[in-house]
Amino acid sequence: MQFENNIPIYIQLVEAMKLQIIAGRLKPGDRIPSVRELALMHKVNPNTMQKALSELEELELIYTERTNGKFVTADETLIAKFKKDYADALAEKFLASMAAIGFNREAAATYIREER
């Protein structure tokens, strides 16, 4: 994973893991690797990884079972809400970019439907 300099690393890790959950690469109930394993995988300090996991727990996308580790939430409604919010943000960004080059919403939608 390549990190951007202008965004704290733990926030980038939160976003990356959130994306894995809403995209279904991490499924409801999946066990998450340990803090140390994740830190090694992402080449970050374990404290940074722990901070990211704490944020994900605050968002209720993961939870901890004492002695068993951390798991992805089984709350599919919550995951669907995060997925919708993420899709809405992407759509708004796309529409703003299209508006910047002269496309209104209708023209942008038509453009998307066209085969390329």
Please provide a brief summary of the model:
This protein is 59% helix and 9% strand. It has 116 residues and is mostly helical.
Describe the structure in your own words.
Helices cover 59% and strands 9% of the residues. The protein is mostly helical and 116 residues long. A 3-stranded antiparallel beta sheet has the order 1-3-2. Helix 1 crosses helix 3 (46-58). The chain is elongated, with a radius of gyration of 18 Å. 15% of the residues are buried. The mean pLDDT is 96.
Name the CATH homologous superfamily of the largest domain.
Winged helix-like DNA-binding domain superfamily/Winged helix DNA-binding domain
Q: Quick one: how many beta strands?
A: 3
* Average pLDDT over all residues: 96
Task: Provide the spatial order of strands within the biggest beta sheet.
Answer: 1-3-2
What fold name goes in the CATH topology slot of the largest domain? Arc Repressor Mutant, subunit A
Kindly report how far apart the N and C termini lie: 31 Å
The level 1 CATH classification of the largest domain is: Mainly Alpha
